[in-house]
Amino acid sequence: MATDKREGNLDAPTRHPLGQDDPAFYDENALLAEMERVFNICHGCRRCVSLCHAFPTLFDLVDESATMEVDGVAKADFAKVVDHCYLCDLCYMTKCPYVPPHPWNVDFPHLMLRAKAVRYKQGKVRLRDRILTSTDTVGNLAGIPVVAGLVNAANRYRPARQALQQVLGVHADAQLPRYHSRTLQKRMRGHVTIDSAKPAGGTRGRIALFATCYMNRNEPGPGEDFFAVFEHNGIPVVLAGQERCCGMPRLELGDLDSIRKARDHNVPMLSELVDQGWDLTALIPSCVLMFKNELPLIFPDDELVKKVAAAFYDPFEYLMLRHKAGLLHTDFKAPLGKVAYHAACHQRVQNIGHKTFDLLSLVPGTTVELIERCSGHDGTYAVKTETFPNAMKLVKPVAERVKRAESDHYGSDCVMAGHHIEHAVADGREAEHPITLLRRAYGL
Ligand code: SF4
Ligand code: SF4
Fold first, then answer.
1. Relative to the alpha carbon of 50, which ligand is closest?
2. To test the ligand 1 pocket, which listed residue (42, 82, 91) has its Cβ within 8 A of the most ligand atoms?
3. pLDDT in tens, 75-132
4. Residue whose CA is closest, atom 5 of ligand 1?
């Protein structure tokens, strides 16, 4: 147990690099010793008990052990805590008083990531998890026109879903994404943007959209809305190019080699766009977080990574910077009424404030209700057979808020979270991406 008893942290939190190149990183005994140290601090603190299922799992293990302390928990059971961490970063960013520079140096998400990386290196990964996180390979296959139709039909066919649960461990009741053969990249091919860039508010006024594997193949509509909204505001838009998955799903698996490969493909391409005068964005908060925060912590000495991180913005952060500089059009044509808006975890931890909430609130005749709770989707957590019930428990309070709001619209910047909420609300309404709502408000 750490000896410094100073309660809380009076200094601004800092984050250390992940440190995967340190030989001790993959040393299992060193990992277990560090887990025991941090679990002891968490056991004495317990502030994070309501954030996710990782902490209740840890505290139950402690409370049910012979000593009722962490030393009574079998080391083999530490993995049960790791299984319930989906690396949302909320405990680090919003709750923990013992993060660096506090001498206790608690970084729970990085510790969980290290445990996942050690497990991955040992080959202890299920085929199901490899498939679910291979978004480019699965998307390329499922995006072939005839295959897309079959996959979408099978996903809605109960016997097929029961078979998928039995064979692969994908819960039969989980909502699986729909595949589009007309991807965002195909839809925008040949699109000509007018280069009328006006730099303002720290932005250069020209933006390249990293399409993301999910928005490209599973949800191309909001991507088109993005083009309409940004170009309406005089911001030229291009797609980033022949990108690959940013790597976030593989991070959840602890597969750091794949993160390096994703970096090697995407970062030089994005860096060139920055050199040509483009700012960068993506419509999925997790992908923005990957480029803005995660890659710089994994590759702290990489100058290209730093350059790309500095040029990456959340889309609504970007529009609000333009608004501050007087360059956002506020010629809204249609009120949105009441909007129940879910703030996604990976957007909250970017420390940019509630920019989507702020922007939607500018639309006359619109009130926005902010819901700041984990949706429980969290990558693959809401589709795996063993974690789907927890994901449904986590989303329940969010769904209740949406139902009680009796809003005209609801949604999240994270479309996967939006669909998971939709699954729990189950009243026939669909979650909508805020960029889609904004397009509607402009009457475009
Ligand atoms: S990073 Fe998120 S999921 Fe992981 S332990 Fe912290 S709050 Fe829970
Ligand atoms: S992560 Fe920090 S705030 Fe959360 S339980 Fe552990 S010590 Fe407490």
1. 1
2. 91
3. 999 999 999 999 999 999 889 999 999 999 999 999 999 999 999 999 988 888 888 8
4. 85
- Is 371 near ligand 2, meaning CB less than 6 Å away? no
The pLDDT score that the predictor gives to residue 243 is 93
d(CA 294, CA 292): 6
Locate the ligand 2 atom nearest the alpha carbon of residue 108 and give its number.
1
Alpha carbon of 293 to ligand 2 centroid (Å): 21
Which one of the ligands is nearest to 81 CA? Answer: 1
Confidence of residue 371 (pLDDT cuts 50, 70, 90): very high
**Chain center to CA of 91:** 15
Sheet of strand 366-371: strand arrangement: 366-371, 337-342, 409-412
The rounded distance, in Å, linking the Cα atoms of 106 and 98 is 6
What residues contact 62, with CB distance under 8 A and at least 6 apart? 39, 43, 68, 69, 70, 72, 73
Is pLDDT larger for residue 146 or for residue 343? 343
Confidence of residue 135 (pLDDT cuts 50, 70, 90): confident
Substitution site in 18, 90, 293 for ligand 1 pocket (most atoms within 8 Å of beta carbon)? 90
Which ligand 2 atom minimizes the distance to the CA of 104? 7
| Among protein residues, the one whose CA lies closest to atom 2 of ligand 1 | 88
Ligand 1 pocket by Cβ (under 6 Å): 51-52, 54, 85-91, 108-109, 112
Identify the CATH class of 332-442. alpha beta
pLDDT tens sequence across 10-48: 677 789 999 999 999 999 999 999 999 999 999 999 999
Identify which of 8, 6, 2, 4 has the alpha carbon closest to the alpha carbon of residue 96: 8
Would you tell me how many other CB atoms lie within 10 Å of the CB of residue 257?
12
pLDDT value at residue 6? 56
- Torsion sign, CA atoms 91, 210, 409, 378: negative
